[in-house]
Design goal:
Blueprint (H helix, E strand, L loop, with lengths): L1 H16 L1 H13 L1
């Protein structure tokens, strides 16, 4: 669970600082 918490926090930070990068990360995770 902690692992997913880490990813979630990373996504939130990424979306705040760099939205396009956030979308790229989401697509990458969905592709896996």
């Amino acid at each position: 669970m902690r692992h997913w918490n880490f990813w979630l926090n990373s996504f939130i930070l990424a979306s705040q600082y760099n939205p396009p990068r956030f979308v790229e990360l989401v697509m990458l995770m969905l592709a896996i």
